[in-house]
Design a protein that fits this description.
Strand content: 25-35%
CATH class: Alpha Beta
Shape: globular
Helix content: 25-40%
Distance between the termini: 48 Å
Number of domains: 1
Radius of gyration: 16 Å
CATH architecture: 3-Layer(aba) Sandwich
Length: 216
């Protein structure tokens, strides 16, 4: 099966079946070469609904979850986006197709180097990738949308405060086996709305115990 056919099957048989109907999101997933972001020995599994190991005890998210994240954030062409947890750079590449700029941070320098290489190979130039421990520090600016690609035991107040008014945050909260995907929308700098979306599981943020919980 060619990558093009595999991508179309991924969209029709996986992503669409999990309530992802936003045509911009589907077009993005159909255009990007996901297999080029997977480790070479797993490239043949890049379009399957499976978690692909990428090293450091981390995994690529499944296509269905990537689709839901992209749709949930309701990205606009003028948006600035932060991603916490770069991995191989695939979700950052998707975000970059839907927004103006993406800042992606990861604690592992080898992930940063790999993601930068993958993004460059795919001619994606509106993503900056930084090696940063999100449990200690975040970029010194605010964003219209934030995608957290790892789970957290509780929501970190610093991440919410990194949203512009009207900004949206996708994050998976809890501890295995019970985790919940949430959408947090900033009404203002001091007022947020939280919606529980669905149950999901992701690897935990490294050193997440250092983060400060936020009480809703």
């Amino acid at each position: 099966m060619t990558p093009n056919i595999a991508r179309q099957k991924m969209i029709q048989q996986q992503v669409r079946t999990w309530n992802v109907s936003d045509q911009k999101v589907l077009t993005t997933l159909g255009a990007l070469q996901r297999h080029q972001f997977a480790p070479a020995k797993y490239a043949g599994q890049a379009y399957a609904e499976t978690r692909i190991p990428i090293g450091n005890g981390q995994f690529m998210m499944t296509p269905m979850l990537e689709g839901r994240i992209l749709q949930t954030l309701r990205l606009q062409p003028t948006d600035s986006v932060m991603e916490i947890g770069t991995g191989t750079g695939f979700l950052a590449a998707c975000l970059a197709q839907l927004a103006a700029t993406v800042t992606s941070i990861d604690i592992y320098d080898d992930f940063v180097e790999q993601a930068l290489s993958n993004l460059q190979k795919n001619n994606i130039n509106n993503v900056s990738v930084e090696c940063m421990d999100a449990s200690v520090s975040l970029p010194d600016r605010t964003f219209d949308a934030i995608a957290v690609s790892v789970s957290m035991p509780t929501v970190d107040e610093r991440i919410i405060q990194a949203l512009n008014p009207g900004g949206r945050l996708f994050v998976v909260v809890g501890s295995a086996p019970i985790m919940t995907a949430k959408l947090i929308t900033a009404r203002s700098s001091t007022d947020w709305e939280t919606a529980d979306l669905f149950e999901s599981q992701l690897e935990p943020l490294i050193d997440a115990s250092k983060t400060q919980p936020f009480s809703f």
